[in-house]
Amino acid sequence: MKRLTVPAIRQRKGRTPLVMLTAYTVRTAQILDPHCDMLLVGDSLGQVIYGLPSTVPVTLEMMAAHGAAVVRGSFHALVTVDMPFGSYEASPEKAFESAAWLLKQTGAAAVKLEGGEAMAPTVHFLTERGIPVMGHVGLTPQAVNVLGGYGARGRSEEEAAKIVADGRAVADAGCFALVIEGVVEPVALDLTHGVACPTIGIGASAQCDGQVLVAEDMLGLFERTPRFVKRFADMAGLIDGAAASYAEDVRSRAFPGEGQVYAAKPPA
Ligand code: KIV
Ligand code: NA
């Protein structure tokens, strides 16, 4: 199976919904890859993998290490790596340097960056120079210190219009796909109709051309579960049960059993 390309993703606008999940590690990538059109190495790894309070402290080096692992663990899905806070906002040139380094380090096909009208020239600059960009508007977690929290966006007419304008600006600048996070349904609908590229929703209703979730959230492996997450498994429960069984077997000397012990003489 050939890996999906940026033009192939673009062409899915208005067709069968695009399936995207986050992945940060090789084994998770291997398991998710056959089911997904796209894997996102999200900077949500700051909270999910490293226990950081937000995505703000995430570094390019962290994104490169996890991005390379996910590329090594996948061969079907298109892999996009998040540009971390501070690595792209200052100028299009700075963004290009960071993005090119990320693609060289990881082998990923594309980068994602947060922001609207202010980032449109950067999206254009990168796209024109061979770096496909996925946009991200609505609730943009890297701006948590400006927004003041992670609440849904677009409830006031003014805010809704701003988000739609932001999404259009980066889409018109050349984004091949656009993540819409944490917005009320009419905003997702307006944006999906208003841009030429596929929209990928997270907490943004079914009015998008695709959906993304943080894999650990939908697997039931992360303690904070926002309203928009549906749990498709209880991995925390499974791991808890397995650890309890292991502990019991070690303490009762039931493990290791005969089957797990090396024979004194190898079988003839
Ligand atoms: O970092 C991330 O996981 C993301 C998705 C939630 C869109 O940006
Ligand atoms: Na992100």
TrEMBL record:
EC number of the protein: 2.1.2.11
Family in the record: Belongs to the PanB family.
Localisation per UniProt entry: Cytoplasm
Annotated binding of 3-methyl-2-oxobutanoate, by residue: 43-44, 82, 112
Catalytic activity: (6R)-5,10-methylene-5,6,7,8-tetrahydrofolate + 3-methyl-2-oxobutanoate + H2O = 2-dehydropantoate + (6S)-5,6,7,8-tetrahydrofolate
Pathway per the UniProt entry: Cofactor biosynthesis; (R)-pantothenate biosynthesis; (R)-pantoate from 3-methyl-2-oxobutanoate: step 1/2
Keywords: Cytoplasm, Magnesium, Metal-binding, Methyltransferase, Pantothenate biosynthesis, Transferase
GO cellular component term of the entry, any: cytoplasm
Cofactors required: Mg(2+)
InterPro entries the record matches: Pantoate_hydroxy_MeTrfase, Pyrv/PenolPyrv_kinase-like_dom, Pyrv_kinase-like_dom_sf
Record: active site: 181 (proton acceptor)
Presence of the UniProt keyword Cytoplasm in the record: yes
GO MF terms held by the record: 3-methyl-2-oxobutanoate hydroxymethyltransferase activity; magnesium ion binding; methyltransferase activity
Protein name, per record: 3-methyl-2-oxobutanoate hydroxymethyltransferase
Protein role: Catalyzes the reversible reaction in which hydroxymethyl group from 5,10-methylenetetrahydrofolate is transferred onto alpha-ketoisovalerate to form ketopantoate.
Record text on subunit structure and interactions: Homodecamer; pentamer of dimers.
Keyword hit for Oxidoreductase: no
Gene: panB
Organism: Sphingomonas gellani
GO terms classed as biological process: methylation; pantothenate biosynthetic process
Chain sites annotated for binding Mg(2+): 43, 82, 114
Cofactor-binding details, from the entry: Binds 1 Mg(2+) ion per subunit.
